[in-house]
Amino acid sequence: xxxxxxxxxxxxxxxxxxxxxxxxxxxxxxxxxxxxxxxxxxxxxxxxxxxxxxxxxxxxxxxxxxxxxxxxxxxxxxxxxxxxxxxxxxxxxxxxxxxxxxxxxxxxxxxxxxxxxxxxxxxxxxxxxxxxxxxxxxxxxxxxxxxxxxxxxxxxxxxxxxxxxxxxxxxxxxxxxxx
Length: 179
Ligand code: CA
What we know:
Layout (H helix, E strand, L loop, with lengths): L5 E6 L3 H13 L2 E6 L2 H8 L6 E5 L7 H11 L5 E6 L3 H9 L4 E5 L3 H17 L6 E4 L2 E4 L4 E4 L2 E4 L2 H12 L9
Parallel strand pairs: 1-2, 1-3, 3-4, 4-5
Antiparallel strand pairs: 6-7, 7-8, 8-9
Helix pairs in contact: 2-3
The structure holds calcium ion (CA).
């Protein structure tokens, strides 16, 4: 990544995965703190000092969805990557609905993980992800007015829907469940 130490929080209860993530991230020049339970993870996350939070979903005490939700109540811009089970579309959709910036499906390759992290950090730095207008096929979406146009049809969206559409527009190659 870079020569500056990037502070990253890892919230993961499975020790082997947690320790593996810490090793990889430290090797790539990050300064890592970690938590093995939901409440501990939330407490650290709310310090607001992390450039990125890697957040597992199934955690003792409080799940990753609730943690994500609580972080978003305080800070809309905190970069978060959810760690999901590979086959679970529901987990992916739910995580993105709650405002996660991206997801990595377990088991993940280190290369894939590092690429995702770099992409999320890059976007959070430049803020380019908040493009005013999103174009998806025939659909043109105004992200500030939460409105859209499909041919002559006027559409309106919720904030969450806009975020999902923005995610789709940014990741044309990512497998996102249809619903
Ligand atoms: Ca877990």
